[in-house]
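Same chain as my last thread, 203 residues:
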Amino acid sequence: EKQKLLLEPGTQTSEIQVNQGVPGQTAQPLREIMPAMESVYGPDHDLTLQARYNLAQALQQQAKYDETIAIAQDVADRLGKRLGPNHPRVLGALDVIALCYREQAKYAEAEKISRDLVAMRERVFGQEHPQTWIARANLATLLAKAGRAQEGADLVRAAHEGMIRAIGPDAEITKTIANLHAYVVSETGAMDAATAIYRGLLA
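reply #2:
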């Protein structure tokens, strides 16, 4: 599964997403091919759903969050009926929805989905899998953005330590979670501790 980091402009934080489509696509060409895709393959075909997922991501990057949510939810529903609600592709679509709610400051909606994603990834992948740690780090980041950084601090610290155990400290995703760790800690007011984490990234 391709993994990509979506960095937020002007901040030190990021949302980690998995099951990404092709980077760099723009929404308009994807919009233009959708009628043909649905006509030729049908609305539930893998190629059609992947194209719709890619469209949702392109719209997300353009901050068209309401439209992104509608498309990503449709993709998640259709995939869920065929593959089951815990399939990684379904979880990837839900990741997109959670991020959109977060960017709209709809923290209650984002938190519900984010907690569901943690629970589902625990069931599917296990407690120590990198995707589970990623889901926990994303939840911690959401809590910090919602003004509840203290709740997120232990969660993101555990995610950082878990990723080091799972794939090592030098993996790019581990470094991104370290960045999230520093951000969440900074939001608690512990600037010395946050600085130490940032410096660790540069070591």
